[in-house]
């Protein structure tokens, strides 16, 4: 058997070492590639993440809060109140103190209230709540009872609008039981016999009196009188007096008397 020369043994050793080096290099490269992918996945944010961090959604501006005037918040916001119209969540509430025999209340009903209903009540900005202020004699109380009798059948606002539509420009109308019955018929009250019985009863007197006491406690001298978020308006003022005040309150302006 021939003996390997030193030169051949050296050459084989070099080839073995070279092979080992190549294998190690391949393994190292594979490990580094795997680590690189893992690091990129863990650290590099996705496209959507980058966009969210760079441009967060703008904050939603809070709606201005209408101010409360010197009369305070008088709104009852009773969802079952038939003597009110408009959403219970409306930011502005107009309280109307009125007498059905008051000619200036009739003027407000004919000229201003329809504008307020169309512009503000129907859009959810304004709620109107009625308060009885029966100050022109026994017929005023009779009319207040009749209006609440109409309200018991869901016809309060049509009833008072019908009464005010027929009111004389001056003086106080003669609101007899027969006249009130006829107004109820015109306003579409369905059960007139029930209306007559309710209007003649005294079941509503405590509520009518409570409204009057509230008005007197506020120092209201006559009708019509209004509180718009606690800001007083006395008398049948021009329509733009009401719309300007409501617009200012809706805009969050500081309203002064």
UniProtKB/TrEMBL annotation:
Q: Show the InterPro entries listed in the entry.
A: Thioredoxin-like_fold, Thioredoxin-like_sf, Thioredoxin_domain
Q: Where is the signal peptide?
A: none
Mind listing the GO molecular function terms for this protein? Answer: oxidoreductase activity
Q: Does the keyword Ribosomal protein apply?
A: no
Superkingdom per UniProt = Bacteria
PANTHER family in the cross-refs: DISULFIDE BOND FORMATION PROTEIN D, GLUTATHIONE S-TRANSFERASE KAPPA
Q: Which protein, by its recorded name, is this?
A: Disulfide bond formation protein
UniProt source species: Mycobacterium adipatum
Which lineage is the organism of this entry classified under, starting from the top rank?
Bacteria, Bacillati, Actinomycetota, Actinomycetes, Mycobacteriales
């Amino acid at each position: 058997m021939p003996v390997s020369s030193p030169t051949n043994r050296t050459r084989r050793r070099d080839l073995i070492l070279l092979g080992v080096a190549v294998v190690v290099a391949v393994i190292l490269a594979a490990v580094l590639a795997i680590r690189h992918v893992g690091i990129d996945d863990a650290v590099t944010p996705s496209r959507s993440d980058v966009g969210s961090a760079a441009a967060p959604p703008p904050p939603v501006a809070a709606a201005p809060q209408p101010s409360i005037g010197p009369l305070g918040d008088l709104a009852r916001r009773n969802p079952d109140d038939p003597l009110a119209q408009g959403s219970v969540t409306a930011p502005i509430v107009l309280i109307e103190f009125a007498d059905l025999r008051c000619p200036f209340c009739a003027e407000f009903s004919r000229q201003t209230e329809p504008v307020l209903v169309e512009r503000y009540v129907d859009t959810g900005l304004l709620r109107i709540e009625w308060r009885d202020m029966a100050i022109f004699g026994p017929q005023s109380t009779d009319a207040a009872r009749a209006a609440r009798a109409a309200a018991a059948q869901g016809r309060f606002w049509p009833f008072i609008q019908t009464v005010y539509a027929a009111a004389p420009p001056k003086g106080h109308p003669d609101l007899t039981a027969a006249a009130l019955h006829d107004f109820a018929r015109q306003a579409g009250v369905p059960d007139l016999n029930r209306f007559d019985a309710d209007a003649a009863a005294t079941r509503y007197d405590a509520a009518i009196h409570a409204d009057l006491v509230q008005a007197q406690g506020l120092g209201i001298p006559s009708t019509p009188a209004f509180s718009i978020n606690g800001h007083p308006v006395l008398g049948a003022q021009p329509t733009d007096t009401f719309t300007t005040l409501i617009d200012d309150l809706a805009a969050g302006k500081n309203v002064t008397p």
